[in-house]
Amino acid sequence: MPVRKAEAIWQGDLKSGKGTMALASGAFEGAYSFSTRFEDEPGTNPEELIGAAHAGCFSMAFSNELAKAGFVPDRVHTVAKVHLDKTDSGFKITRIELITDAKVPHIDEAQFQEIGAAAKVGCPVSQLLGPGAEITLAATLEN
Asked: Is the pTM of the predicted complex or chain greater than 0.90?
């Protein structure tokens, strides 16, 4: 399997410094700073990129689990809300909410929810992040 790479450069101290993060593929490069991470200034942050990775991985895992069960989805759309909270030991990602809606022909609600739960457990990014953060799933089956 290929090894994927990303890089970050940071200049200065935490509060007044700035940096960039980039994917080796060239598909993304973005600026980040204290205020893009801990406030609402435009720009990216590590948690947003973790959310993108988790949403993408889960959508693929869910599609795969559905197909293995005989249901080929028309579409799986996932939003990952990554919660960065201040704890007694510092800042920590405490929770990730996966919010998925999918259009899957010929499946009933119970099967859809069961397969979604299995996909959450089997998703490689969920497996990585799950020991340190609570991961929830709200899955909606579209008609």
From this structure: yes
